[in-house]
Amino acid sequence: MKLSLSRRAFLKKAGLTAGATTLALGSGWRVLGQGTLNVALLLPQSGSFAGPGGEAIRGAQLVLDGAEAAGRGVNLIIEDTGTDPSTGLEKAEKVLADDDVDFIIGPISSAVTAAMRDRVLESRAIWFIPTTGAGASPTVEGLCSPQVFAGVNTFALSNAFGPWVKENVADEVYIFVNNYVFGNSTAAQFREGFEAAGGTIVGEGLPPLGTSDFAPFLTDVIEVLPQAMFTFVPGGNGISFVKQFEEFGLKEDVKLTGLGSSFVNLFLPAMGSAAVGAFSSLNYGPEDISIPANVEFRDAYAAAYGRPTGPSFYAMMAYDFARTALMATEAVSGDTSDVAAVVNAIENLDLDSPRGPLSYSATHDPITNIYVRETQAQEGDAPPLNIVIDTIPDVEVPIDVAVGGPCDLS
């Protein structure tokens, strides 16, 4: 869907005034949106999301290091948000102190997103958020803004995956997700899709975010012994969960399914054989999408960083965001002070993404394919890899569960 938003309509929606694109500096004035193009990567480099954060930074750097758009060189600002909301807000305050940031990519944690939300939306920055929760949770409420664009919405990954699991894996599923807003949104959307397809949820485990010892929770799973589990345990602790899943003997009887961000190739060397046989949904599969855009991205990433498992979806989304920022800047002839024009440029962009064709809906969520992957063993000592086995095409997030929950910017 191609959208158009007048400057007056944008300012009204964003809560800005016509004078919001200039900034007093000392005794003079400077016009924002000119000179160096400032792109801030507010991403975790420490804590349980350090791996995904590092992947996202590398994906963005692949595009932005040494780049320019419409004659403007890129100044890349990188700050470690960790997983602590107060730290995330502090870093947002730091980079936005002069309101001279054109684009922000990040964070990863939904709790950090919620903490920095109000401060970012006071600014003129275009905000690219890699992952957003589905439904009207405290995390996504208030993100319905022309400035916000999502990399993927939980709804697209979990709700559409539910019917696939019912048809191809199991009639009965035990839900096992970290107990925080993003995990709970993921569980609710999977449950809705799975039950609508005729499936039955037979139990639920909700370990707190940050849990590394899953023994008390897996004991409950053993008592139920479901046909399958739908899981979301993000970051490094997801490695511990999958290994303990095997250690407790569940791998023999219970099919493991889940959100693909818990099974990215980055984690598979550490998970080893414990992950083999898992089914997961994600908006990207680096090994199996043979379109030219993905081959180019994958080869460039390998040449730059030499990572044998290929780029993760975090790297891919940051790569797309970085390209979008440059293309939008070119489209407005370098004048990013006209935020409405930048938004319109992004809304009308058809990006040749490594994940396949990408455009944005009226909610600023992507319309994109969702890929079902199976974690498969490789020959010799090579670690397992996720191999795409099915595609759910052109998944669009409904307005009532959008990035702003509900949100309609048309």
Structural features, described:
The structure is a single chain. By secondary structure, the protein is an alpha/beta fold. It has 2 domains: 7-153 and 291-367, 3-Layer(aba) Sandwich (Rossmann fold), CATH 3.40.50.2300; 157-285 and 369-395, Rossmann fold. Helices cover 35% and strands 24% of the residues. The chain has 13 helices and 17 strands. The strands form 3 sheets. Strands 9, 10, 11, 12, 13, 14, 15, 16 and 17 form a 9-stranded mixed β-sheet that branches. Strands 4-5-3-6-7-8 form a 6-stranded mixed β-sheet, sandwiched between helices. It has a two-stranded antiparallel sheet with strand order 1-2. Strand 14 and strand 15 form a beta hairpin. Helix 2 (50-64) runs parallel beside helix 12 (313-331) and helix 3 runs parallel beside helix 4 (110-122). The radius of gyration is 21 Å and the shape is globular. Residues 1-31 and 134-140 have low confidence and may be disordered.
Largest sheet, in brief, is: 9 strands, mixed
Helix content: 25-40%
* Tally of helical segments: 13
CATH architecture annotation of the largest domain: 3-Layer(aba) Sandwich
Distance between the termini: 9 Å
Helix/strand/pairing category: alpha/beta
Strand content: 15-25%
CATH topology of the largest domain: Rossmann fold
Total individual domains = 2
Q: Taking all residues together, what is the mean pLDDT?
A: 85
Counted beta strands = 17
Shape: globular
CATH class of the largest domain: Alpha Beta
How would you spell out the order of helices and strands? HEEEHEEHEHEEHHEHEHEHEHEHHHEEEE
| Low-confidence parts | 1-31, 134-140
Rounded radius of gyration (Å): 21 Å
- Name the CATH superfamily assignment of the largest domain: Response regulator
